[in-house]
TrEMBL record:
Subunit structure: Monomer.
Pfam families: NUDIX
Assigned EC number: 3.6.1.-
Swiss-Prot/TrEMBL cofactor(s): Mg(2+)
Species this protein is from: Thalassotalea agarivorans
Annotated PANTHER family: NUDIX HYDROLASE 23 (PTHR43222), PHOSPHATASE NUDJ (PTHR43222:SF11)
Gene name of the record: nudJ
Protein name according to UniProt: Phosphatase NudJ
Amino acid sequence: MNKAQHDHGDSQFKPNATVAAVVHCQGKFLLVEELENGQVVYNQPAGHIEANEDIQSAMQRELKEETGLALLPDYFLGIYYFHRPELTLYFLRFTFVFDVSETFETQPQDDEIIACHWLTYEEIKAKKHQLRSAMVLDCIEDFLSGQKAPLSLIKSNL
């Protein structure tokens, strides 16, 4: 039995289902600063989908917890699948876009969040080695390329 099988208690492979928010305002993106293994990293507001929670509700909950913002997503950006070999974990990330008209003041409710920052694409690229994963920049670049899908693409039957 391999490590992935052992972690999930059976032979069925189960990646971690997560959500992430690309929050955009006039050329700036909202990132959270957090500690991961003692290192400061930057990420989009993101987190795991909980049992009996639909994907869009999970996104709104994570955004509220990590930034204090209660917003509705404007559209769906995409699904991202990636592997963290150092953790032997796989993630399936559902990413939403929130296009806002002002850089709202943030008030993180999650103790793991150090601060929230509104940063330009260039500022985020300059922090490339401090990003929690390559997905942070991938999502922003997909947004900048005009990629989007309607929210109706995501359906839940809970």
